[in-house]
Design goal:
The complex is a heterodimer of chains A (329) and B (500).
Chain A (H helix, E strand, L loop, with lengths): L1 H25 L2 E5 L3 H4 L1 H6 L2 H5 L3 E5 L2 H9 L5 E5 H10 L4 E9 L4 E4 L13 E4 L4 H12 L8 E4 L5 H7 L4 E4 L3 H8 L4 E5 L8 E6 L1 H6 L1 H19 L4 H12 L3 H9 L1 E3 L2 H8 L8 H14 L16 H6 L3
Helix pairs in contact in A: 6-15, 8-9, 12-13
Chain B lengths: L17 H24 L5 E7 L15 E2 L1 H23 L8 H9 L2 H6 L11 H12 L12 H16 L15 E6 L8 H13 L18 H32 L1 H15 L7 H8 L4 H24 L3 H9 L4 H36 L6 H11 L3 H29 L10 H17 L4 H19 L15 H10 L3
Antiparallel strand pairs in B: 1-2, 1-3
Classes of the chains: A alpha/beta (329), B mainly alpha (500).
């Protein structure tokens, strides 16, 4: 009697386990995305139902940028949109990941915005700047300092969440801020006469924005990720046509909560990469034209400035095979 | 007594009469409101320009849209930039090498007429990207077929409209490839208050709009974006988070507190660690909670719970320990066993104070709400506060903050008021706001209808009633407080609410 009972329990439990395993297989891919124009563009695929069309179940989770990386590190997301630099930081301190789609490179939207009267980074000597330490704007500042022949200690940094920088800038507490759009644009508007004194346009390719995914998830659900990459190619193609721009802008602006007219200039500061353009970036090379070279530059900076201790294995963070396969190459 | 000292506003340790205390209570709310009004309606604010017709220029780093407010200096810079752009276009035209422009660029120039065209009724809402309709407006305006009613268009801009209409007509159905002239920016004059100083009337209107808003239509993908929920729905979300978090905390805290307060064994087993834990900041566990409970409402509820729990255990244990020892001795004398003592003496004995503790704890739970709601997916009123606060839309932020404040306050008063009915034998030290308002309204009505003698009689009746209640009080012979190892904060809170 007892034996039969135990058998029954055992059967039920294994059935339940099998069910949950099956469920995990069928669960949608969870991707965290945030308010950078190159990532908001995923919204077009969502709104147009292209993921469904492609036969892949994806749940896009709209989050604050840093929180999305935290949620990814906490194991709640299968993938997250981040810059190549931040992927290294998240990998060193939280959870490693691998890039499968390069969305864009920042072409001016990442800015150091300074008070009226400050005309260049050189004028910032001895002044304070508010930015999020260890993340992408910090890198931009350090690169700017290097190009201007200045030392890190020339500027005092006040660690501030990027989304709060406009408020901090408006309060007059600091002389400059480092932020990306739409925050940087907001800061420019809030303080009359303020100016962007150094932007990512001065160092194109320093900041690549990509979709980074969990390494295990990529292995076990490769087909699904491939479909996601294909949808991205469709999105970029759609946005490249001027006639679709109004429709695209309405979707993008609606997600962020601004008007399409306000959103349009943000696209100019984001160089969205077509599938063909991205292929070049995927190629292994030195310098900022390749994601390998760009990540190497970032890695050197991160180690030099103590964001993490040991250089990262950059190749482990990059997987061009999905992008190539999505193009049939 | 209260009535005899009522003549004076200031008397050392003297109660004011009902009329004066109601007046002061009203003032305590009216004074801050008055300061707010003076600050926002005062004559010290200069003029700002609110954009009505905008334009874009590569000379400017910012894009200004209709509704933006600009300081006089920025406004001048803006206008000059557009004027320079137009001069360049005209100069190039005169030298017979007109500037080229993309269709998209020209469409954007024409679209700047949309706002006045809509206000004047020439275009309908939602036609801001209907380029053909907009083009017709330009042509008709140039031909003098349209006249501005509600929003005038400056004569300079009418000249620009006519200039551009020539190009539009020349290109027929196609779009011109030459650069069109840009409309000069126009603005209405506004009071240049700082963005965070929203005047009371705007907050009130926005509050009303928020709570009466109907649900917007769901999008095709069923996505619940930042703007898709009404304020009331978010309010309900916040309530759910706080009530569930609080309930979870007290479900754990009440038994632990009762046990620790009754048995020294449990006291020594639980309290030292709980006390230590209460000093650790709950929000620091945010990422951990997210990792364990996912991104939805789980981590939020757990944060409210985690924030409320340690204080609750300590406070409830303290309350239980303060039960009159004579009651336990009497029960023992009557032959009660351990279980009976706990169930029939301790629990009923501490119930009124327990209720008061829980009421206070519910108040502290509100302080965790905003932090909790920003974990994982943002939700509830905190989402409104955070999202719109970042966009400097304070007229939407303030009503949400007000809702949290009012809810906490009213809930506390309501629970205090109800407590008087649940435990009528307990002498309530501080009268609840609602209770005092209701008695004050009743008193005011009485004063209006009856003669002056009626008031003292009523007061006497109330006093007699309270004396009767006091006689019923279980813990009237409470021993003086003994110093114990609990934190100052817990001691303070407990002492404050159980003054003899």
């Amino acid at each position: 009697m007892l034996k039969r009972y135990l058998l029954k329990v055992g059967l039920t439990m294994s059935l339940a386990l099998a069910c949950s395993a099956f469920h995990a297989m069928g669960a949608p891919l969870k991707i965290g995305y945030s308010d950078w124009p190159g990532w908001v563009a995923w919204e077009i695929g969502i709104k147009k139902g292209w993921f469904k069309e492609a036969g892949v179940e994806v749940e896009f989770v709209w989050m604050d940028y840093v929180k999305s990386m935290e949620a990814y590190a906490a194991g709640q997301l299968d993938g997250v949109t981040m810059t190549n630099g931040d992927a290294l930081v998240t990998g060193a301190t939280g959870k490693p990941s691998v890039a499968i789609v390069i969305n864009d490179f920042s072409n001016g939207n990442d800015m150091i915005v300074a008070k009226p009267g400050i005309e260049s980074l050189k004028d910032m000597k001895g002044k304070t700047i508010a930015l999020e330490e260890g993340f992408v704007e910090h890198l931009l500042l350090l690169k700017g300092l290097e190009l201007n022949g200045m030392a890190e200690g020339d500027i005092t940094i006040k660690n501030t969440p990027t989304n709060s920088t406009p408020q901090v800038f408006a309060s007059g507490e600091v002389d400059a801020i480092g932020a990306w759009q739409p925050n940087s644009g907001q800061a420019l508007k809030l303080v009359a006469g303020s100016k962007a004194i150094f932007t990512s346009k001065d160092v194109p390719g320093l900041i690549y924005d990509a979709l980074y995914v969990d390494r295990d998830s990529l292995k076990s659900r490769r087909e699904e990720w491939l479909k996601v990459a294909k949808v991205w190619n469709k999105i970029v193609e759609y946005m490249a046509d001027d006639d679709n721009l109004d429709d695209a802008l309405e979707i993008l602006a609606g997600r962020v909560g601004v008007t399409p007219a306000e959103y349009e200039p943000l696209l100019a500061g984001t160089k969205l990469l077509s599938a063909e353009e991205a292929l070049k970036v995927w190629e292994k090379a030195d310098g900022l034209g390749s994601i390998y070279g760009s990540s190497k530059v970032v890695d050197d900076f991160n180690v030099k400035f103590g964001v993490y201790a040991k250089p990262a294995d950059i190749a482990a963070y990059i997987d061009p095979s999905i992008a190539k396969e999505a193009l049939g190459k | 007594m209260a009535t005899s000292s009522g003549r004076h506003w200031f008397g050392v340790r003297k109660d004011l009469d009902q009329q004066r205390s109601s007046l002061l209570m009203a003032l305590s709310f009216l004074l801050p409101l008055l300061i707010w009004c003076i600050a926002s309606y005062g004559p010290w604010w200069e003029v700002a320009h609110q954009v009505q017709i905008s334009a874009e220029s590569p000379r400017l780093q910012s894009i200004y849209i209709v509704g933006n407010r600009l300081e006089p200096g920025t406004w001048e810079e803006f206008q000059n930039a557009i004027k320079l752009d137009n001069e360049e276009i005209l100069k190039a035209k005169e030298s017979r090498t007109p500037l080229e422009s993309s269709t998209r660029q020209n469409k954007k120039v024409l679209r700047q007429i949309y706002q006045p065209a809509m206000i004047n009724g020439w275009l309908a809402r939602g036609q801001e990207t209907d380029d053909e309709a907009i083009r017709q407006v330009w042509l008709k305006l140039a031909a003098g077929e349209l006249t501005a009613g509600r929003q005038e268009i400056s004569s300079e801009n009418l000249e620009i409209v006519k200039e551009n209409a020539k190009l539009l007509q020349a290109s027929g159905a196609e779009w011109p490839t030459q650069s069109l002239l840009k409309l000069l920016p126009e603005a209405s004059e506004e009071v240049a208050r700082p963005v965070y100083l929203v005047p009371p009337d705007v907050v009130a209107t926005s509050f009303w709009k928020g709570i009466t808003a109907t649900k917007p239509e769901a999008t095709e993908s069923g996505d619940e974006g930042a703007m898709k929920k009404t304020l009331l729905e978010r309010y309900a979300e916040s309530w759910r988070t706080i009530v569930l978090g609080f309930l979870l905390a007290i479900v754990i805290a009440v038994p632990l507190g009762l046990l620790a307060g009754t048995y020294d064994f449990f006291s020594k087993l639980f309290e030292p660690f709980v006390n230590f834990f209460s000093y650790m900041p709950a929000p620091a566990f945010g990422v951990v909670l997210m990792a364990i409970f996912g991104l939805d409402s789980g981590p939020k509820i757990m944060l409210v719970c985690l924030g409320t729990l340690p204080g609750a255990v300590l406070m409830l244990a303290k309350t239980t320990r303060r039960l009159d020892g004579a009651l336990l001795e009497a029960a023992q004398t009557l032959g009660a066993n351990q279980r009976q003592m706990l169930a029939n003496v301790v629990v009923p004995g501490v119930l009124p104070n327990l209720y008061n503790d829980l009421r206070l704890l519910f108040g502290t739970a509100w302080t965790w709400l905003v932090i909790a709601e920003l974990l994982g997916f943002k939700s509830g009123l905190a989402e409104v506060i955070d999202t719109h606060g970042r966009r400097f839309q304070f007229e939407i932020v303030y009503p949400a903050i007000l809702m949290i404040g009012l809810s906490g306050f009213i809930m506390d008063q309501l629970l205090g008021f109800l407590g008087r009915f649940f435990f009528p034998w307990v002498d309530q030290p501080a009268q609840g706001f609602l209770a005092s308002i209701s008695s004050k309204i009743a008193g005011g009505l009485r004063r209006l209808t009856a003669t002056k003698e009626a008031a003292p009689t009523a007061t006497a009746a109330i006093e007699a009633e309270e004396a009767a209640k006091a006689a019923l009080t279980l813990q009237s012979t409470e021993p003086p407080e003994e110093p114990e190892e609990e934190s100052e904060a817990t001691l303070g809170a407990v002492a404050k609410k159980s003054e003899p």
